[in-house]
UniProtKB/TrEMBL annotation:
The lineage of its organism: Eukaryota, Fungi, Dikarya, Ascomycota, Pezizomycotina. It comes from the Eukaryota. This is Uncharacterized protein.
Length: 595
């Protein structure tokens, strides 16, 4: 089933540019469900339960109840995916796969015009539900699998006689929650009266309404050390990643009388292409800025540095996933295949990982104000003059290029110092250190420290494992309201402390807290407390990042509906009873070979 979920999600990915915006939400849910199914298979293997015949008689009924619960959830999940797979096969246009693949395999390229016109009338679920109902149903399946997984693993341990009755009771509660929520996802989409067919104009409006708008941003080019605005309404070219494509961007500015009717308002932006050394990375700072290093300007055949700015906050995560990280994988692979290893891409010292530049601190020209750098070791000190340059860099370790580019960022940054040759004919261009330069260097180092700190807040750390992973349509407390939320509870391998991370899917809001001991205090029915230091990371309307600290935490964590609140309570109870296993967080997408 994980393969089916991945294939269907891949179809939504391929068709996202021509499909309604609701398709992107369903796509994300399908990748999450695929990861949950893969984790379920990895942990449980071919035998997900013990044989009831091997149990004492007083436990056999409970084990059979657990089997029926798991079977019911998996069967309904399979039915949903098969139904959706049939819709994808019917309404998608297919094309042959790559030449080096099996010629019988095909890849879904885009949605048909028929689907774009009539997607509101399609029965997306087996109960004739619309896209919103499908998304809710997929979320219920994913959350149920995450909760049930822990109960199954617990029932296979050596203390099965002591825990099976309790686990069986929890399985029944989860099944009851799952069944009740599926009943709430069967609303049918509005339909036209059977005696009237939609006009051609109505069909066009139905197809275009809600279509995904391309991400727009500003393009700047560095000239004489300063950024020059090239286009204020640029967007990605749909085929930028296709083999042989030489165009990255399109100009979306409105044409004026001075521009040709069929031309671009800023033709130079459409001449920006990739070179063999092009590489993307982000700059430090509260305002989001991405750099495309050594891009090719085909109008002049020169290498230029391109800056991407002014991205809408809701689109930043999508831009990073669909362009920045994807391009980083493409260019890193191409460079290493050609034997190129540099500060952009290189293999880690242990030879196990590929490291790619992730974030760069702005320390250019500061070397001119540095007289020398002193290195101390014990009572010894070495001072080296002739500083020629500085670089402040953070790297990420690249995974599989087909895994949606969820690459871990390293928890440290590197300060590179470049020296001029001591026997150079001319003295190095250096001056004595001044207070202003020292403050500037210190501020750049603090900017990088803040980037590393925020990274450690919004994702599981290397020393943490994920104990609970759930999704909810909206989570609210007195300091934030987070829609389309992903909720994680992690556990530290070092001290056993748990940490709560609530993140909006578009990454505009992140709420994190080390949970107090009272969160797990018995009895299970007790309302959990969140009186512990809390950090809130928020992107404002202008796209600037704000970081807030609440030393006393918050008083409550509420969900939009009672079913989501019950889901969270089931997960908390499972943690209280030690039912949920500690496992690594799975990626949202895997290749078909891996599954």
């Amino acid at each position: 089933m994980s393969k089916i979920a991945w294939r269907v999600a891949h179809a939504f990915t391929k068709g996202r540019h021509s499909a309604p915006r609701e398709f992107r939400e369903v796509e994300n849910q399908l990748y999450s469900l695929s990861a949950a199914l893969a984790a379920f298979k990895d942990v449980c293997g071919g035998d997900v339960t013990v044989d009831p015949a091997d149990l004492p008689a007083r436990f056999r009924n409970g084990e059979r109840d657990g089997l029926r619960t798991v079977t019911g959830i998996l069967d309904n999940c399979r039915e949903t995916l098969k139904h959706l797979e049939g819709i994808v096969d019917r309404y998608s246009i297919v094309a042959a796969g790559p030449k080096d693949k099996d010629p019988e395999e095909s890849r879904l390229r885009r949605w048909s015009a028929e689907l774009l016109k009539n997607y509101r009338k399609i029965e997306w679920t087996t109960q004739a539900g619309d896209l919103a109902a499908l998304r809710s149903q997929l979320m219920v399946h994913t959350n149920s699998l995450d909760l049930v997984l822990g109960i199954i693993v617990s029932s296979r341990t050596s203390r099965i006689e002591d825990s099976l009755r309790e686990s069986s009771s929890m399985m029944k509660e989860i099944y009851s929650w799952w069944a009740q929520n599926l009943k709430n996802t069967t609303t049918s989409p509005p339909r036209l009266p059977p005696e009237r067919k939609p006009t051609e104009m109505e069909q066009t409006e139905m197809g275009l309404q809600g279509a995904v708008q391309p991400i727009s941003f500003e393009i700047h080019v560095m000239e004489n050390g300063a950024p020059q605005l090239l286009c204020a309404e640029a967007r990605l070219h749909d085929g930028w990643a296709e083999p042989g494509s030489s165009q990255l961007f399109l100009c979306g500015c409105k044409r004026t009388a001075a521009n040709p009717e069929n031309g671009s308002a800023h033709p130079r932006v459409e001449n920006i292409a990739l070179s063999q050394l092009s590489f993307p990375f982000r700059q430090t700072g509260d305002a989001a800025v991405w750099t495309l290093f050594k891009a090719l300007d085909r109008s002049t055949n020169e290498m230029v540095t391109v800056l991407i700015r002014n991205v809408a906050p809701a689109d930043m995560c999508e831009l990073e996933e669909s362009f920045i990280r994807r391009l980083a994988h493409m260019q890193a692979s191409a460079m290493l295949q050609q034997g190129i290893s540099n500060m952009l891409v290189h293999v880690s010292p242990d030879g196990k990982h590929v490291r790619a530049l992730n974030i760069q601190g702005d320390v250019k020209n500061l070397h001119k104000s540095i007289d020398a750098v002193a290195f101390r070791m014990g009572h010894r000190q070495l001072s080296k003059p002739n500083v020629e340059g500085l670089s402040l860099l953070n790297y990420q370790e690249l995974g599989n290029a087909l895994e949606r580019y969820n690459d871990p960022s390293l928890a440290h940054a590197e300060l590179w110092i470049y020296y001029a040759k001591e026997n150079a004919d001319e003295p190095a261009d250096v001056t004595k250190s001044v207070v202003h330069s020292a403050k500037t260097l210190h501020q750049r180092l603090e900017d990088m420290r803040m980037e590393l700190f925020i990274t450690s807040l919004q994702s599981p750390r290397p020393d943490e494992t994920v104990a609970l992973h759930l999704q909810a349509t909206e989570v609210e407390c007195e300091v934030a309201a987070i829609s389309d939320a992903e909720l994680l509870i992690t556990r530290s391998r070092d001290d056993g402390r748990h940490r709560l991370i609530v993140t909006s899917r578009n990454r505009c809001t992140v709420l994190t807290q080390v949970l107090p001991d009272t969160f797990f205090a018995p009895p299970p029915s007790q309302v959990p407390t969140f009186a512990s230091p809390t950090w809130l990371i928020q992107l404002d309307a202008s796209g600037r990042r704000r970081v807030y600290h609440y030393p006393n935490g918050f008083r409550f964590l509420r969900f939009r509906n009672t079913s989501a609140e019950r889901m969270f309570e089931l997960g908390r109870n499972a943690l209280l009873q030690g039912a949920l296993p500690v496992r690594e967080l799975a990626v949202r997408e895997k290749t078909e070979d891996q599954l």
